[in-house]
Design brief:
The chain is 64% helix and 0% strand. With 120 residues, it is mainly alpha-helical. The longest helix has 17 residues.
Length: 120
Amino acid sequence: MEAPETALFSAAAAAVGEGTELFDLLKRLMSGAAPEHVSLLLEQVDGSDYSLADWMAALAEFDAWLEREGRIERPVGQMLGYIHCCTLMQSPGLSSPILKVIVYQALTEFGFEAISDAQM
């Protein structure tokens, strides 16, 4: 059985191409993430109406927003949770809007505050 990180990077390379900006960003974010976050991303992609490429673009949008806000931390687990919530914001029966646009709009309207484990 393939390790989750290997499976993710193989799928990402097939989705957007190895060495692309999206691939490199995903590799950077997920290489520093806890192993359970890699599995979580794969599960959330499988459980959503969006492709891995859509999720990667949404993560890139999130990363860019954090950068514009001057934030250094990248709490991958909470970022994935936020994007997952964004996937639930669409109305049933309507065509799926672009995920990175939903994420951008949510971040712009509601912001994002990471909660540390100590605060939970």
